[in-house]
Specification:
alpha+beta, Helix Hairpins, Heat Shock Protein 90, 8 helices
C-alpha cells in the first residue's frame, strides 16, 4: 500500500508539472510575444511578417516543451526501475516469508538502502528457517533420547510384574532400570543447563585456583573407568602449579565432559594425554586421545546439541549429545576459546584457554 501511494504521489507530481508547463507554453507565449514584438510599421506585409515570426516562435516553444516533457520522463522511469520495482519485489518476498518458511531469497543486491533492506530480510528469513529446522531437529532428538530409556524401563518393569523375569534375576534388571533413570536425569540436567545459558547466559563465580590440581582431581575421578578399559591417562604440566582466574565448578564440568568423551571414544589400551602450559598470561589445556577420530565433514557439527558422530545416534548409547554444547557455552562465557583437531583413525585433541593469574 505504501509503495502504491509513493508511486501515485510521484506520478501526480509529474502530471502537475506537465500540465503547468503546457499551460505556461500555451497561454504565456502569445502574451510574451505581444509584449516584446513592437509594431514599427502598419503595412500589411509587416503584419504578416510579425504573424509568421510569432507562429514560428510559438511552434519552437511547443517543440521545446515536448522535448523537455520527454526528458522529464527519465526520472519517472528511473524511479520505477530502481525504487518501485525493487520495493515491490521486497514487499512480495516479505509477504511470502510471512506465510511460508520456504521461498527464494531476494535477488536485489545493490549497494543502497533497498539493497541493505533486502539483505536484512534475506538474513532474517534464513535465521527463521534455521530456527524452524533447529526446533524440529531438537524435538526429534529429545523425543528419541527420552523414548529409548523409557521404553527399556517400561519393558523391564512389565517383565518383572508379569513374571517373565524370575525374582532371582530382578536385581540385575533393576540395576539396568536404575542406569536408565540416571541417563534420563543426566539428559534433563543437561537440557536445564543449556536452557539457563540461553535465557540469561552463564553466571560465573570467578576465583583464582591451581588448574594443575583441578586436572589431577578430575583424572583421579576417572581412575576406575580408565583402569577397567585399560586406558592410561598421562598428564604433563609446564610447572607444578599454574593459577588461572575462572569459575572452578564450571571448569571442572568442562574437564569432566572432555575426559569422559576421550575415554568413551578411545580403544582399549590406547593412551589419553592431558597437557597444561602457560604462555603470555594465558593458560592452554589440551586433552588428546588416540580413538576413532572425527571426520572432516562432521567436525563442525560436534558443538550442536544432541549431535552424535555415528548415524545410529552414536557408538556410546548412554551419551546425551549435550556435553560439548555445554563445554562450548562455558568456555565462551569465560571469553575464551576452544578448538578441536581430529583425524579419523588417529585421534582427537581439544584445546581450550583460560586467563592466567597470580596466586
Amino acid at each position: 500500500m505504501m509503495k502504491k501511494r509513493l508511486y501515485m504521489s510521484f506520478l501526480l507530481s509529474y502530471l502537475v508539472f506537465f500540465c503547468a508547463a503546457y499551460a505556461a507554453v500555451y497561454f504565456m507565449t502569445p502574451k510574451l510575444l505581444r509584449h516584446y514584438l513592437y509594431i514599427v510599421s502598419d503595412t500589411e506585409e509587416y503584419r504578416q511578417y510579425l504573424s509568421s515570426v510569432s507562429i514560428a516562435i510559438q511552434n519552437t516553444c511547443h517543440i521545446l516543451f515536448i522535448i523537455v516533457a520527454l526528458f522529464s520522463l527519465i526520472p519517472l522511469f528511473v524511479f520505477r526501475l530502481h525504487i518501485y520495482r525493487p520495493l515491490s519485489r521486497i514487499i512480495m518476498a516479505a509477504s511470502m516469508y510471512t506465510f511460508n518458511d520456504e521461498g527464494d531469497p531476494i535477488s536485489y543486491s545493490a549497494d543502497d538502502e533497498l539493497g541493505n533492506l533486502s539483505a536484512s530480510l534475506n538474513y532474517l528469513h534464513e535465521a527463521v528457517c534455521n530456527s524452524g529446522k533447529y526446533q524440529r531437529q531438537f524435538i526429534s532428538n529429545v523425543s528419541h533420547d527420552f523414548r529409548s530409556p523409557l521404553t527399556s524401563i517400561k519393558g523391564y518393569v512389565e517383565a518383572m510384574l508379569d513374571g517373565t523375569i524370575p525374582p532371582e534375576q530382578q536385581n540385575k534388571y533393576l540395576g539396568i532400570v536404575l542406569g536408565e533413570t540416571e541417563r534420563l536425569n543426566k539428559l534433563t540436567e543437561g537440557l536445564l543447563t543449556l536452557n539457563t545459558f540461553d535465557d540469561r547466559g552463564v553466571y560465573l563465580d570467578f576465583t583464582v585456583f591451581d588448574i594443575v590440581q583441578v586436572v589431577q582431581d578430575s583424572v583421579a575421578s576417572f581412575e576406575v573407568i580408565s583402569r577397567q578399559k585399560n586406558i592410561p591417562i598421562e598428564t604433563a604440566f609446564a610447572s607444578p602449579a599454574i593459577h588461572v582466574r575462572a569459575d572452578l565448578s564450571k571448569i571442572q564440568q568442562v574437564l569432566y565432559n572432555l575426559i569422559d568423551n576421550a575415554i568413551k571414544f578411545s580403544e582399549n589400551g590406547s593412551l589419553i594425554r592431558i597437557e597444561v602450559i602457560s604462555q603470555y598470561r594465558r593458560v592452554y589445556v589440551s586433552i588428546k586421545d588416540h580413538g576413532d577420530g572425527i571426520s572432516r565433514e562432521n567436525l563442525p557439527k560436534i558443538w550442536d546439541r544432541f549431535y552424535k558422530t555415528d548415524s545410529s545416534r552414536g557408538r556410546d548409547k548412554k551419551g546425551t549429545g549435550l556435553g560439548l554444547s555445554i563445554v562450548k557455552e562455558i568456555i565462551r562465557a569465560h571469553d575464551q576459546n576452544i578448538n578441536v583437531v581430529s583425524t579419523e583413525g588417529v585421534g582427537t585433541e581439544f584445546v581450550f584457554t583460560l586467563e592466567g593469574a597470580e596466586p
